[in-house]
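A quick aside before the break. I want you to see a complete sequence-to-structure record at least once, exactly as it would be stored in a machine-readable document. Don't worry about memorizing anything.
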Amino acid sequence: MKCFSRYLPYIFRPPSAILSSSCHAEADIISTVEFNHTGELLATGDKGGRVVIFQREQESKNQPHRRGEYNVYSTFQSHEPEFDYLKSLEIEEKINKIRWLPQQNAAYFLLSTNDKTVKLWKVSERDKRPEGYNLKDEDGRLRDPSMITMLRVPVLRPMDLMVEATPRRVFANAHTYHINSISVNSDYETYMSADDLRINLWNFEITNQSFNIVDIKPANMEELTEVITAAEFHPHHCNTFVYSSSKGTIRLCDMRTSALCDRHAKFFEEPEDPSNRSFFSEIISSISDVKFSHSGRYIMTRDYLTVKVWDLNMENRPIETYQVHDYLRSKLCSLYENDCIFDKFECVWNGSDSVIMTGSYNNFFRMFDRNTKRDVTLEASRENSKPRAILKPRKVCVGGKRRKDEISVDSLDFSKKILHTAWHPSENIIAVAATNNLYIFQDKVN
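That is the input. The structure line, written in tokens, reads:
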């Protein structure tokens, strides 16, 4: 894990945060982070409904060993606040998830969703403009037909590069409850969207119809015992997907068995240790994120205190369990009172599935090396993250004497939390969202 203590940071702050640096605006809080399939682009969504895309600069000829930095490529408003008059319900513009589609041509495509509506966006470049129209002048106004005395062949002239984002599809009115996940299928023709009680399957070409493939809503809502918390397609098998629940269980479903996947193919659950049973057991066992490994052999899940790795061939218990912040076990009562116990942390794999990363409080994020079983805690903060600086590992002291470089568990800031992270698909570059700041760290360049 030596290299993981040596990341170099770049920090991005939204424009409104720069204008009022004393306190961050609610709309600027980053709510999702996602690299595209090549890692050349990085998209973030925020609570204000905006999507900001960063592009990696090409390596400089003068400094061929220096890796490209990420700079703002495009910014656009993806979702607007809405109001459901039938239910007297305000629908937030907050972007819950972003998922990229593999690039097929010069343009880029991504899915973004708020609580109710999924949109397919096309992001394209334009560096030429047509001139010499016959019926219009250069400003676009119609010309007087009597003044047209000759035919012209329009030509393309160079212009400043312009990046345009246009919504190509809007998938709406299919979810009664809040969408928590979207996942693109490996056939690249379909994707699924999941809310608290249902999962829908969409075709990219059809916006007015979706297929309900999972429905756990009971006939009597008073009998409701669990909700869907996350869902994802298998990276290689287009018929297989998993979804997790608030009860700490994972179900693997096969769409070949029936149209409605109300019966799972596999059921992953770890039996609870009766000696650890407490009032908070059910809350902290709720799974906030589920991710297939790139190989498709493993599933990673994140609950409040741990990250677990499951083998698809072994359902009764995880093959690996990593304690993220076990020192908070004694603080669960106060975390319940301030609602932090309901925070939903995400988890990510590195490109080779050998290291996993997830967030914690005090702007800490954790990395676990599956081969060496070593782990490290790093901090994303503006104070210790000057560009090209080396990040130092952090340690939390639970009790007794505190060393100079340790921080006491009682002095952790629970308002600073790393909920959203992303890992470059092939390189050691990570993106960490800390409230309204985006940090990009990369392996140290010698």
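Two observations worth writing down. The longest helix spans residues 332-337. Residues 43 and 169 are 19 Å apart (CA to CA). We'll return to this after the break.
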